[in-house]
Amino acid sequence: MSVTLLVNPACRAAQRRAGLAEQVRRALPGPYADATVVASRSLEDVTAIAAAARPDDVVVVLGGDGTLRAAALGASRSGSVIAPLPGGSGNDLCRHLGIPLDPVRAAQATASWTERPIDLGDVDGQAFLTIATLGFTAAINEQANRVHRRGPFIYVAAAVALLPRVRPTRVVHVIDGAATPVDAWMVSIAITSSQGGGILVAPGAEADDGLLDVVSYDARTWGGFVASLVATLLRRPIASRAVQHRRSRSLRLETLDPVPVYADGERVGTTPCTIRVRPGAVRLLGPAR
């Protein structure tokens, strides 16, 4: 077994703290202590490095959800094992798995991690690890990606700026052959439970159940949507008519005009699109459940 510490130099934590990769490398314990540090040049490079690993290799990835998505795509091809360390703005995969949000503490914790398979989502051939989204949350991602400063607060700032201008989108969900039109303020298709740095949009989602959790905010009024959004942020119950929750292995999303679809903080396509789950496609090291 060989161990690679894969670092995306553009990752947010690497920008904040010089020498972070070396701190993380020194913190890796036991069988991971002799990791070779490799700096990627792009997300495509991240995928290629993970895809070139052998099935018994471990690729420790320091980066945000977009970097982890790129590594997971490569690992799904090679059969290598991914160990995720938080290095981005949201770090929602690490939050879902219970990984410490300090990358050095997370590296130290790998000594007790165990291997488990997790699912990989797919938007017309573009992989994702956490949540694919359209509508208000996609607009938040788009706005946040334009900001040079990073951290979970940027999602809150983007939401506050966009909220007065948000409007619902007519979305048709096609699940198991049945078409359901809704006027949705936002739609999330979840592998994991949160997005935007811990906003819990799909509390029942599991990364290894082979299902997509489809959550639509289709409150009829702007005020109703804001109330549902606030309830989500405060983790309080939401009226069933305001938020619809379905589960499926695949679905198709259609809109009157193409709208952007974001996943893991990156733009992955537009509607219409077909979203599927690839059960157990990625071998991952993480805290015991």
From TrEMBL:
Cofactor(s) needed: Mg(2+)
GO MF, one annotated term: kinase activity
Residue intervals of the DAGKc domain: 1-127
Any single Pfam family the record assigns to this protein: DAGK_cat
Keyword line: ATP-binding, Kinase, Lipid biosynthesis, Lipid metabolism, Nucleotide-binding, Phospholipid biosynthesis, Phospholipid metabolism, Transferase
Record-stated family: Belongs to the diacylglycerol/lipid kinase family.
Protein name: Diacylglycerol kinase family lipid kinase
Source species: Arsenicicoccus bolidensis
Source organism phylogeny: Bacteria, Bacillati, Actinomycetota, Actinomycetes, Micrococcales
